[in-house]
Amino acid sequence: MTTTTKQDDFVLEATRTEMRRPPLYKVLLLNDDFTPMDFVVAVLQKCFSMNRERAIQVMLQVHKEGMGTCGVFTKDVASTKVEQVVSYARQHQHPLACVMEETE
Questions:
Q1: Chunked in runs of 10, what are the mean pLDDT values of the chain (104 residues)?
Q2: Mapping DSSP to helix (H, G, I), strand (E, B) and coil, where does residue 25 land?
Q3: Alpha-carbon separation of residue 51 from 17, 24, 32, 76, 91 (angstroms)
Q4: Could you give the angle at the alpha carbon of 102 between the alpha carbons of 85 and 39, nearest 5°?
Q5: pLDDT recorded at residue 3
Q6: Could you tell me the CA-to-CA distances from 41 to 15, 18, 23, 55, 71 in Å, in that order?
Q7: Distance of alpha carbon 27 from alpha carbon 14, whole angstroms
Q8: pTM of the entire predicted model
Q9: How far apart are CA 76 and CA 22, in angstroms?
Q10: How far is CA 31 from CA 14, 48, 66, 71, 77, in A?
Q11: 82-to-7, 42, 52, 92 alpha-carbon distances in Å
């Protein structure tokens, strides 16, 4: 954004304001030995608006690799998603863990 201001008979120098995109955060589900796979799929559909096919892919990634990426968001959105997942899992008495980490 460039601005030029004229004040009396003087012209002030234009200044450039550099805007940076906010850092992004990955929301990750962590594998455990107790949360049913169907529940993980339901969480992905409910909290991340995934269709069933995509939710199953992410659930399998969690199961096979120990964690799976649910999405990439700004810090506030990622934090809210983590809270939603953990709260929903606890309401249904599952130990499903969800964390966020800054992307590089």
A1: 58 79 96 97 98 98 98 98 98 98 93
A2: strand
A3: 41, 23, 23, 24, 23
A4: 20
A5: 54
A6: 50, 41, 28, 5, 14
A7: 41
A8: 0.81
A9: 10
A10: 54, 17, 5, 16, 22
A11: 51, 15, 20, 16
Phi/psi at 52 (nearest 5 deg)? -60, -40
Q: What pLDDT is attached to residue 77?
A: 98
Which residue(s) pair with 6 in the sheet? 11
Phi, psi of 21 (to 5 degrees): -70, 145
d(CA 72, CA 24): 6
Confidence (pLDDT) at 15: 78
Query: Which residues are CB-contacts of 2 (< 8 A; sequence separation ≥ 6)?
Result: 14, 15, 16
| CA dist list (Å): 30 to 13, 34, 42, 53, 94 | 53, 12, 15, 19, 12
pLDDT of residue 16: 79
* 22 close to 69: Cβ distance less than 8 angstroms: no
